[in-house]
Amino acid sequence: MEIPLWASAPFVLMLLSIAIFPLINLHWWEKNYPLVAITMGILGLSLFLFLTRDLETVWHTALEYFSFISLIGSLFVVTGGILIRIEGPATPWVNALVLFFGSLISNVIGTTGASMLLIRSFLRLNKNRLKPYLVIFFIFLVSNIGGALTPIGDPPLFLGYLKGIPFFWLIGNVWYIWLFTIAIVLGVFLFLDFRNRKGLDEPAFAGAPGIFFLGKRNLAFLALIIIGVFLPTPIRELLMIGSAIASYFLTPKSVHIDNDFCFDPIKEVAILFLGIFATMIPALKFLETHGHSLGLTTPGHFFWITGSLSAFLDNAPTYLTFLTTAMGALGLDIHGLLVQTPKDVVAISLGAVFFGAVTYIGNGPNFMVKCISDRTGLKCPSFLGYMIRYSVPILIPTFLLVWLIFLR
Asked: Are 115 and 365 in contact (CB under 8 A)?
């Protein structure tokens, strides 16, 4: 049976809950978000199964969630055992350098790995001048836009690699668009950071500037997790979980204490995304069925529709849906698509990765970074506040320029 659009109602309710309840009563939300997520998830699954009896899709989604939380959770635990202390003044240029470095390494250890590795040190570096925009731009650059160059950078690009896109094809075709986008976002960041005079007018840093690194043994576990990405299920997940367990027990307690490590952030992400994964099944099924009828004929079409949906839905299946749509529209396989209309693949890839920064749920590490930052006492914007104050006015004009210059 074809899934109707109204079956996506639990997913919409889940998004509205995340957006509105913290604004109405934050204390109630912090106590009851598990109940909301599980209730919406059960409602979404029940509705989907009642309409379709499609147990295979539910099982496949459960495996995707297991893989997702295994990756996110293992990286959270392992990077929690790595202490990077950047000693020196937190000037705007130093902050910009950290963000650019994070954007680069996102392509080597993934946006999640780079985010978990650097967010604590970035917050610690700016402890005397912390403001929400610092975290927001970290999410923009390190957790999302930075990872657009390689299949390791972001999950949808890895799926493209599995479908036959050569490993280095993306970097050869998008590096200049990536650099253009990074430059604009970093430019806006520098403008805001120079206006944040807090801490900048204090006496010059008196100590010896440098970067201090503790927990080096966890680099081996981090490498195992990255290698695990290329292995099949369930070996991949077992390797990740095993690495996390070994890392947790082998890391000196002093490192965990200095990193203010606890399991609250990963617990919140795991529960909320359990509800999101369950409720988005009907929405993705509707998209899968009707994607070909959306009249997508240009790279710009693919960029905006893939991006808009990736901001709210899981960007990996959204990416695959429109990659398949592009191939079906032209009657080509992936190799033919790369030769005849490479801009379509570029547009779909960049849309899936870039727009993940538009909401907190657009990409896995976004919510993780927010939760870790909240624990420092810095209250990040709400779901709607993030979009209204930062992502829409900053990112959408940037993406408009990307479309006008490169993808029209």
From this structure: yes
* Structure token digits, residue 127: 């402890």
pLDDT at 203: 52
What SS3 state is found at 84? strand
CB 292 within 8 A of CB 333: no
Query: What's the pLDDT score for residue 202?
Result: 59
Closest CA to 399 of 341, 358, 342: 358
At 219, which helix (H) or strand (E)? Answer: helix 218-228
Is the distance from CB of 268 to CB of 361 less than 8 angstroms? no
Other beta carbons within 10 angstroms of residue 375's beta carbon come to 15
Q: Are 3 and 51 in contact (CB under 8 A)?
A: yes
Residues 6+ apart with CB under 8 A from 12: none
- Alpha-carbon torsion angle 387, 390, 392, 395, nearest 10: -130
Residues 6 or more apart whose Cβ sits within 8 Å of residue 394: 140, 185, 188
Q: Mean pLDDT for each consecutive 10-residue tract of the chain (408 residues)?
A: 87 91 90 95 95 92 90 90 84 95 93 90 91 96 96 87 88 97 98 82 59 88 91 92 96 90 90 92 82 80 93 85 81 86 94 96 90 89 94 97 95
Q: What phi and psi values does residue 214 have, to the nearest 5 degrees?
A: -125, 155
pLDDT of residue 175: 97
The two tokens of residue 165 are: 């896109």
| 373 phi and psi angles, rounded to 5 deg | -65, -40
Q: What is the pLDDT of residue 397?
A: 98
Helix, strand, or coil here: 30? Answer: helix
CA 176/CA 387 separation, integer angstroms = 26
Q: Give the C-alpha separation, 7 to 109, whole Å.
A: 37
pLDDT at 58: 94
The DSSP annotation for 318-345 comes to HHHHHHHHHHHHHT--HHHHHHH-HHHH
Q: Measuring CA to CA, which residue among 338, 325, 364 is closest to residue 154?
A: 364
Amino acid at 322: F
Neighbours of 289 (CB within 10 A): 12
Parallel, antiparallel, or unpaired: how do β-strands 83-87 and 210-214 relate?
antiparallel
Q: Which two tokens stand for residue 242?
A: 């095993």
Residue 138 contacts by C-beta under 8 Å, 6 or more apart in sequence? 99, 102, 115, 118, 119, 122, 369
User: Cα-Cα-Cα-Cα dihedral of 404, 151, 149, 141, to 10°?
Assistant: 90
What residues form DSSP beta bridges with 85? 212
